[in-house]
Specification:
Length: about 200
Amino acid sequence: MGCTLTTLPGPRERGWGQGGPARYIPSVPTEVISDVSLRSLQRDEVRPLSEWTTTFQLFVAVLDPYTQQSAWILPTAARLLREYAEADCRVGFVMTCDADDARQFLGPMAEEFMVFIDPDRTAAKALGLSTLPALVHVDQSPAVVGAAEGWDTQGWRAVAMELSKVLGWTPPGLPNAVDPGAFAGTPVDGSPTQG
C-alpha cells in the first residue's frame, strides 16, 4: 500500500551533487515532456515547465481536491513544503482542478504557496503520475528526479531526502505524530477506484 520505490540512475549520474542514485517510482519518466505547461493560479499565466525551472528546481505536491486522500495529506504536504520554502527551490501545489476549486480547497494556502492549476490533468500525467496525491521533485533540465504517489512516509521521505542532498538542506522529519497512516492514492485521471 502506498508507494513502491526502486533505485534507478538519477541526478547523481548526471553530475548533480554527491552520493548514490536517487530513488524513483518505476512509472516516473526520467525526462519531462518538453511541451508541458503549468498555469499559475496567482498570476493566471501559462508557462512551459522549463520556464518555471530556469533558476530553481521545483518541489510540488500534486493534489486532487475532489478526493479524501488529498484532503487527508494537505496539512502534511503544507508542512513539508514550508520546510523548503527558504531553500533554493520553488515549492507549491499542482491542483487538478480549476482556479475556484483550488482556492476553496487550499484556503489561505492558495496565497502562501505557489499554486498551479491543471484541470485536465495533463501536467500530472506528463510527470509520469498514475495516482494522487503525489510529491514530485523536478530539476532544471527539466527532469523528474523523484516522485512518490499515495501517502507512504518512506516514499515521501526518499523524495525529500534527495532534494535535501541536491540543495544541501536539512531534511524534514517524516513522519510527524499528526500525519495520517499510509494509504494508496486515487487514479490521476479522476476515475473511481476499483475494489
